[in-house]
Queue: 2 jobs
Job 1
Amino acid sequence: MASSILSDCSSARLLPLRRALLPQRLPRIRPCPALASPRRLLAAARPQLLPRPPRMDSVPAAAASSAESVTVSADASAKVIDGKLVAKQVREEIAVEVSRMKDAIGIVPGLAVILVGSRKDSQTYVRNKKKACEAVGIKSYEVNLPEDSSEEEVIKHIASFNSDPSVHGILVQLPLPRHMNDENILNAVSIEKDVDGFHPLNIGRLAMQGRDPFFVPCTPKGCMELLHRYGVEIKGKRAVVIGRSNIVGMPAALLLQKANATVSIVHSQTKNPEEITRQADIVIAAVGVANLVRGNWIKSGAAIIDVGINPVDDPESPRGYRLVGDVCYEEASKVAGAITPVPGGVGPMTIAMLLSNTLESAKRIHKFK
Amino acid sequence: MASSILSDCSSARLLPLRRALLPQRLPRIRPCPALASPRRLLAAARPQLLPRPPRMDSVPAAAASSAESVTVSADASAKVIDGKLVAKQVREEIAVEVSRMKDAIGIVPGLAVILVGSRKDSQTYVRNKKKACEAVGIKSYEVNLPEDSSEEEVIKHIASFNSDPSVHGILVQLPLPRHMNDENILNAVSIEKDVDGFHPLNIGRLAMQGRDPFFVPCTPKGCMELLHRYGVEIKGKRAVVIGRSNIVGMPAALLLQKANATVSIVHSQTKNPEEITRQADIVIAAVGVANLVRGNWIKSGAAIIDVGINPVDDPESPRGYRLVGDVCYEEASKVAGAITPVPGGVGPMTIAMLLSNTLESAKRIHKFK
């Protein structure tokens, strides 16, 4: 049965397995039970719960606003946290706000994207961001520089956008060519326009009590937004973040902590990741290892946010591979209370949060409530 | 027996109990067993293990360098981590380096302290810092401003020290008078001279992989230094930090994480602090609640760093009170592998690390190795 093979959570068939990120002592891998493919599972489980949106200008701080909250249920399948649906809602709310702002003060939020080189994947990401901007009425500016540009040239363009009043957000598409120093370039982005939220000053303010960052990095902000919109209680809960990258794991842990969860961070040096993860009411997996988190890592009823997007071999797919998360969906969805699918979970939220940060920036700069 | 009463870990006799910091569901408090006072215990347990110093300019990153490492021993008493002794060693090493630098390039490190108002405790702290500077050959500069000074006046003095080449570290003594905004004032300190390490840019760099802060906040740096000098292994170990303040708990957690521990942060909203703490090989307690951490919170053989300094009622003391930590020393020292006493543990390390940061700053500014 092809589908049972395709949904096998054993890592034997994984494509580029990032060994550096793997915990040193992984539990013995058991094959995943035969199940329908995640895509079919997802279709069958389309959420009965339609999240109600909070106001966009206070998204991360908004209390859980969905009518129904996620509850523990060991026997039933987990609720599907539908990122595609939420991202669509968020984009619609942003479009309304952009239009309201334009009508009231004549200002249109602007996002500038700088792309260096001609990587196909980066070009696709930039095109998608541009499209998403257009769809909600945000003006986008794009600069394409050749692969062999100097750091100074990139920084010159950043400086120009820093002082351009029609630009409220600046994004440098990563990865940069190898001869460039990411840190020098990202630090050149004005802190008030750093919509990616990667500046260390933003991270520091995120870590500190009594301070707030100008911007929250988009992917972890998207994770929190999903938890909020699906009514997952965070305060006083145990949360485990798997992975500690600067762009997802670490800021996600800081956000959960700011929301008063008791947070543990599991990483490549953790000796018993499954045992620690099993204590968590909320899991955010962002380690980049396909199907790492098995069903027996998960506490019954936990909310699972799967940030991983990993290609695994799939001879039935026209592309020869398909995308799976860091969590073994088939196993986890039987134990968890709520879970994001891959694709269709966190993925669509990242661009939605980029738009949200750009709108927020324009509102702050122009003191528009 | 007076001593048994004095060493009682029940919180009944606590002086200013900071209720806001208490976990919501504290475990039932059992009276501490009758024991000699901590001071006597400490005298009896003076370390058999004499730590060997790493080089001062790479203190926090230095691998454990003590000849003997801390080992698990459930029956024996815990090793005493003697902060007074280590702080003395650190100060001696700094004195040697200051002298070497003066001889080689004619530069003497300088620390500027700004005190606003006339709080007795702040005056004492500032005096102690000045004395400590003098003892190691660091030049100290002091500005005393009246309580009713304006923010602008304080910032003017900071700006003057920022541009003074003989000053390598600037410290604003906290707390500031109520009419001042701490954030505005601390942010005015040049990031290159922020020897307290409280600037959000420093905290952000501390949180991020692949980045290093200019300075590590003194008290958490002191905690790490104690662990290093007593050969406590950190990589791959479970660590729990109790408390999440900007100046101790949060940066301590970031430091442990940078050293590859698996870190959990326990705070006032944590529902089962004792259960989580019991999983830790390393505990840093920095919550400001006398004797909060009982013996049954502690894993056998764990290393315990107690940052708390809390006054408790003591009719036998001439002052009417004595100081105890956040950890019930009498109980914990029977279970732990190593433990800091209060006083004489973390306390003396804070000023030693301030001197270390000032020396480090002067070396960096003058490119002296």
Job 2
Amino acid sequence: MKKFCFPKENHLKNQVNYCCFILIAVVFMVNNSYAQQPVDYVNPFIGTSNYGATNPGAIAPRGMVSVSPFNVAGAPNLPHEKDSRWLSNPYVYENTFLTGFSHVNLSGVGCPDLGVILTMPTTGKLETDYLKYGSTYSNEVAKAGYYSNTIDKYNIKVESTASIRTGISKYHFPQGQSNILINLGVGLTNEEGGMLKIVSDTEVEGIRNVGSFCYYKPEESYPVYFVAKFSKPADETGVWKKPKKQNGLEGQWMGYNGKTRLYKNYKKEVLGDSIGSYFTYHFKKPTTVEVKIGVSYISIANARENLKKETQNFSFDEINKSTNAQWNNLLSKIEVEGGTKDDKTIFYTALYHTLIHPNTLNDYNGEYPSMTKRETKTTKGKRFTVFSLWDTYRSLHSLMSLIYPKQQSDMVKSMLNIYDESGWLPKWELNATETTTMVGDPAGIILADTYLRGIKDFDVKKAYEAMRKSATQLENNPLRPGIKDYLQKGYLTTTTTKSGSVSTTQEYNITDFAIAQLAKELGKTDDYKVFSKRSTSYRNLFDKEFNLLRPKNYDGSWFTPFNPNTGANFEKNLGFIEGNSWQYTFMVSHDVKELMRLMGGKKSFVKQLDKVFDNKQFDMANEPDIIYPYLYNYAKGYEWKTQDRVSSLIKEYFTNKPAGLPGNDDTGTMSAWLIYSMMGIYPSSPAEPLYAITSPVFDKVTIHLDNRYYKNDTLVITSNASENKNNKKHIQSIYMNGKKYRSYFISHDKLVNGKTLKIILK
Amino acid sequence: MKKFCFPKENHLKNQVNYCCFILIAVVFMVNNSYAQQPVDYVNPFIGTSNYGATNPGAIAPRGMVSVSPFNVAGAPNLPHEKDSRWLSNPYVYENTFLTGFSHVNLSGVGCPDLGVILTMPTTGKLETDYLKYGSTYSNEVAKAGYYSNTIDKYNIKVESTASIRTGISKYHFPQGQSNILINLGVGLTNEEGGMLKIVSDTEVEGIRNVGSFCYYKPEESYPVYFVAKFSKPADETGVWKKPKKQNGLEGQWMGYNGKTRLYKNYKKEVLGDSIGSYFTYHFKKPTTVEVKIGVSYISIANARENLKKETQNFSFDEINKSTNAQWNNLLSKIEVEGGTKDDKTIFYTALYHTLIHPNTLNDYNGEYPSMTKRETKTTKGKRFTVFSLWDTYRSLHSLMSLIYPKQQSDMVKSMLNIYDESGWLPKWELNATETTTMVGDPAGIILADTYLRGIKDFDVKKAYEAMRKSATQLENNPLRPGIKDYLQKGYLTTTTTKSGSVSTTQEYNITDFAIAQLAKELGKTDDYKVFSKRSTSYRNLFDKEFNLLRPKNYDGSWFTPFNPNTGANFEKNLGFIEGNSWQYTFMVSHDVKELMRLMGGKKSFVKQLDKVFDNKQFDMANEPDIIYPYLYNYAKGYEWKTQDRVSSLIKEYFTNKPAGLPGNDDTGTMSAWLIYSMMGIYPSSPAEPLYAITSPVFDKVTIHLDNRYYKNDTLVITSNASENKNNKKHIQSIYMNGKKYRSYFISHDKLVNGKTLKIILK
């Protein structure tokens, strides 16, 4: 084994800190009790079909950069192509026409953004039109931190890997003329505008506008900077520009009007909406060229530094190995035994998907753009970005608190940075813009949840102040539109908002519950009482006629006509956003007992909950109801239904196939649901550090706890799952540290401070 | 008078060299024998109509920057608007709709280029569409280095001045909301693409693509960089972007599709084809804001340095005074007495126009872009640009040799720089691009002419090598297409070129004549013989049938049918570019005696020359025939015709009006013709340091010679011109230094080494 050292990123310049790959490798060898490493189970194709919106691109854990095949710009009229629908991913498994590799990408989101800095290797005469230079491809291989294919038209094998902020590709060119293109004129979205400047025969730098997410905020477009370095000097370089066609007499005189223009061997900035660069080679024999693309959201200089510091003089293979090792190191925090190979594959791929977003925003030197103003700030730690909090508060962040508490702590700190800079906690933050996507005020839930799980190394005073601000400020409150009605009436009305008056009320309730829980923990008794009271105001919207939640008008009357089925599959529905009453009514896991009472008791509750599933109102792909299968645990005697529902949902929706996610992964939310569900526990109520217990998929799950946060080294969940092949068995008994445990819920504290949770199925 | 010092530009950083304005002012006071200073006679409106293509913008002598009112983008269908024809100037006198002030502009050229970095002050609600924020204007005032108007719609008085690389404007805003716009989405040409980045509430930086001249070479577009500084911090800043409308479903979902987007208080780069920035103020009382825009063709950093070093903390008024003083200093090199006020006005305005191009390309620190590759080079002296040599070799450069020999020397050095960088002398160089506009190989003519006039402080060896290269290289010769036929047959044929086979032959002849003259001076006898012989090969194209030059076919036969009238007014004509046989036949001033012989002697020659004028074939607006009126001097006894023709051409074509130039000023060529003609001398044959003498317009012309090149302090031309009000008088006698002089030609040497030339009219 070749020994090489990799510099650890460090913003203190004088303090050089190396971690040696060899050490990581040794740790693996010691720890390795698998035939395969966890990283070997990752299948990045999962989620690349059925709107999963993941991509198989090479990425490092929480990387700013990924190198994704880009195959959505081939034929605008096909259903899976960009612009034919609201396509949010650079790659769709079914598509076949590759037009390059994009270097900044989102994974598992519901709106298009990024998907730019597209590279493409070609051979023969230079062609700059992607519809002409695009090609089919074959021999796809995707692993954690690695992607490869062969571009059929040119017989070029492409391999890609990535460090945090740098994409590294290796193009295996045949003999003859070859070209490496960087096309800034095409991307995943309609956003345009770029700059390219060829620095030398081995380097080009550039800027590309990206944004805005969901096309919500035109003013929230911003630049991404990059530097591309090539391992071999090109024989010719240049930039192309495709201007729009001009009208008028002068346009007629302009010989090149509307035609693509080539700037050969040109070394100054080229600016415009549709530009690209080419590096051309004339190879006497088959030759490989490595391309490193460093990225920054601060400046070209930082992009260059990111590239340099992260990749030094390391080869593609060295970087690929290192990134693979980083992935394996993180994935190995959970070891599983038992289950099928597919079980392990979907499990580790899900864990992999939870380690993509939130991702790194700060540069190697610690610089990152501040919220709103995009001023350059410096962090001594991490500034994470891509906080899709309406999604992730339900499952992802509590999982991070359990498995990667340091990362979760850094995420909380990033959220507080955002509060410092913008005056508000994030809702759906993306690269220092607040996209204000979806409803509710979810950040506080995560802050409270994290603290209550014992991750306390952040400024809780500030966190509490921030949570309280959005819960109490009546005017100009971007996080809680309709707050006045909410406080006055207890709910939003059909006049207050056209975007989910009921669901928004529920979201505010959950956040207020979170504030109450944290207030209690911090000894703020008055606040505890106030916010506890507020947290159940959804009860005003419970309509006994339907045994469901129902929107109310401004005057307090019920919204009529009311069809609780309306609203599924993104139908417009006044009371509920992205869902209907069935999909929202039970989303009060902090108050299930009262809901049960309102519905007429346990049996009536179970019956109503059954209806959701039996009448196909349950939507595995959307967040509000993903907790539903666990709610049977609240109905004593019906816990087996949780076990049945969860088992069959896993079987139905999560598979080792490109379509193996139920829909958008929602930056790891669905994946986190799967991980929990396969381990046999699920956080039953956000901001309440409690897990519902269900039947695990694996015989043994070993979680290596982080000793900076937890006293025990490991938490082990065992079961006789391998005897439950047909999912006919149910939990017979539970043992905590060998002692019989009589509840189907277990607190976070009890779990992590115990050593073994044993679940017996029969 | 306020005393203030102005830093002299200096590339040696540690050596600070100040020249004090007060000193310049003192010199004026001592020298001042005028009621008005020369600078006071400059009327920058001359040439702004009738296709003169000058502009009234504020500019420093040979400035990189000018601040020109931009009124050609108001209504695309009007005849004097951009894009309705090949409009080459940012301003047309007849137009009325102002959309801003452009900061890089060409003066007196025949193709559109530059005309960008448009500023516009407005009041009231922000409007970013120039068709909406544009306005009529009034109270125009233009002086050397100063322009002012009032923008009617907003009642804003605008004043502008400039240093070499910085435009300075003063906006007198009323009370209320005011906005200063910089629009990179509109310019004189179809070129697009820019970047804007707001640096602070008093500063914005940017880049704009410009080029290519005449839309000839798509690859010769390049960036101009700028930094704008405002004297008062804005209350709001922002950037706008007008993207093109996207098609497809995604476009429909994009609420702002195709709509102008505002990036408020945004501090990162905005890139694209149609972008602009705004600085908004809320004034409690009428307020002036000064805007300084520094420009560079190297980088934003250099633009910032140019601005800083040139304008320091000086106010608008201080800079305006300084620039005015620089103009006056240069214009005062020629003092005239007698003549009318209009005579002085057209004279000094013409001299002003000869001091605009060639202009400065290098930055304050000496950096400039190299030819072709645009690499950063550094000059210790000046790098001039805008060499429209097919025009300027005829009159401008010899005038510079006489009046501003140091400038002419620097121009020659810049031409040799271009040779060093590109391997070829320039033909029509513009900001380090070779536009290859027009025909012939004119640079050598200027190099020889300059040297032969005694301006020798350049590398004549290199100059000769460069001239010889284009005259002898048979393959891949960009300066002499058709050289093989030229050498083999003595002329280009109708097969060799479709763009003026005869005229190109004549141009090559003249250059070869220039090479011969320099060869002789340098003692290269063999070359002298070879090139002397080549210089008269046009004779092969003299057709006795017409007594004119006529194109020949490849086989040596005459091109038929032949109508010598065809080709005037830009009609297509195989043998002659931009002209016809009448307008070209006499363009052999180095061989007039032989032409006379070919035509059948003196009388026949005079008759034929008369026909040109009498049959309205003479074109004062085009270069090939501007020497014609002086050719009568070669026909002894007919010199009075030169005097008559020149006098009446001055009267007819050169007036103190916007239409007071015969057509394109051609970067000062027409102006130089006028200056010479009004002084009573004209360079009768390029590369032959000889002047034809005609009747002056002024009683006394005093040229202050540059002692670095000439031993005498002054050259004085006197006459009794003021007695010649009706132009009925002719030259009766000429005295050189008091001695009777018997020729109508005088050598440069004799002229500058004599002290007085006295011309008696009767």
